[in-house]
Amino acid sequence: MERTLLVLWRMTLLVLACIESSFATLSPSGINYEVVALMAIKNDLNDPYNVLESWDINSVDPCSWRMVTCNVDGHVSVLGLPSQSLNGTLSPGIGNLSNLQSVLLQNNAISGAIPTDIGKLEKLQTLDLSNNKFTGGIPNSLGDLKNLNYLRLSNNSLSGPCPESLSNVKGLTLVDLSYNNLSGSLPKVSARTFKIIGNPLICGSNSENDCSAVSPEPLYFPPDALRDPSEPGRTKSPRLALALGSSFGSASFIIIVVGLFLWWRHRHNQQIFFDVNDQYDPEVCLGHLKRYTFKELRAATDHFNSKNILGSGGFGIVYKGCLLDGTIVAVKRLKDYNAVGGELQFQTEVELISLAVHRNLLRLCGFCTTESERLLVYPYMPNGSVAYQLRDQIHGKPVLDWLRRKRIALGTARGLLYLHEQCDPKIIHRDVKAANILLDEDFEAVVGDFGLAKLLDHRDSHVTTAVRGTVGHIAPEYLSTGQSSEKTDVFGFGILLLELITGQRALDFGRQANQKGVMLDWVKKLHQEEKLNLMVDKILKNNFDRVELEEMVQVALLCTQFHPSQRPKMSEVVRMLEGDGLAEKWEASQKVETPKFRSSENLPQRYSDFIEESSLVVEAMELSGPR
Fold first, then answer.
1. Are both 311 and 397 inside the same structural domain?
2. Which domain holds residue 455?
3. The one catalytic residue among 117, 128, 176, 431
């Protein structure tokens, strides 16, 4: 009887603890402390494009706000505001968001001091304040962030010494303090990569410091049960499980056997980071990524049931999945997993992809890897891809009207601009097309599949042996030489604009004409004959702006010029789509004499000529299909 009462008492305490945690952010008057903290951040920032418009002091729940991500308990876990043209200062109120795991404010113009209150964020794993205008010193309080994994403060105006307290953070993977005005001696930071180049007072000619990146040892994340006992959040060890088990009478034998098995399995796999078994705590994270077990994703997709397939292509098959907490996700099951290289290589590339965070880029939520599987987990995009929606109608009206198509073009351009000019390191997509542009619940463009070409091609990083892409979207120089650059993405974006205008895929158009990928040639011909109306998607039924059509066609033709040097950068494309500089750029393009593409021959006159001449096109592949 006493034992039963004790068990009931413990269960009661557990329920009360859960109830208390669900209201932890509410004051006695019902005010959400996280709302107050976020509003303090908003009030200290200048927001020229109103990206924080949904942040409302009268809201009870900030989880629906843009740029804010919450965990399963409903607490704010990610504050992601990169590349939003924000200026002003960062409020000390950020220190009250006690459940934050990631703060991503890179590529803005935020100034002032870095708040010391950030040191209160005990769960913080990623802090990226790079490419801003922060001044003052690096707070000593950053040394209190025991779970910190990534620290990026590069390209600011920070001064003073690098705090010795950073040597206390043992789990660091990357510390980037480059291009500031730091001085003094350097602490012994146990980071896999430590960048301090561009600090003249540290890396000057008379300095004894080694300013090259430091990589002391391979990255290894132990399972929770093997962590140091003093670490917060550590799960009970098998030995403790045995001790507890002995108090439960007849159940003790079973628990002892299970405990011994777990202990043996942990000991046996102690030096293995990736394993097909599920002994690792799924809460173990890589930066701000979650590591899922294969069993978890298999259950979420109903054993990868073909009924849950959202799309397929050269990278693999994408499945719709439902996690145990009810979250709907998209699970990409990569094929050719051996081509990804070793586990550490895969891990490194996934880390880099996850650091690219922008409102118009598909966010990588997590990953799973075993001896025979590589899987990536993304948010589910309820409106599928642009390619799918271009051919869809509701009550006889197109889902993508002219206004939405313009917004998709601009959103995609902004996403590619971030990959090319604001992401570190920059990422070349290599397969920009309507099937790879996804649409969220508001029909905002979200660029998917970026960075994955590198995952498959890392062995060929210096010599390209095959063209990866989709016929009709591949840039001429890529077809001819196999060499890609950001200008190959610009070409693909130009073809995407033509897809938005015509409602057709380049491949489909080519097949209908019994030729190979001639949509671009056809559009050029109609533009010369001033018959633009003939190219517009018939579904639109003339519901479009003629001036805007002319402008979009001009941008598309500028992006698809055969010589890469003549194509604009994505930053110029964004400005032109926003109505700035197109007329001048177009006029200048009409006066430029076409250069020789190769030293021995003139540039072909038609895009189809490149396809016919290319010896690599046979190997071209479609990297991903519609969602």
1. no
2. 386-619
3. 431
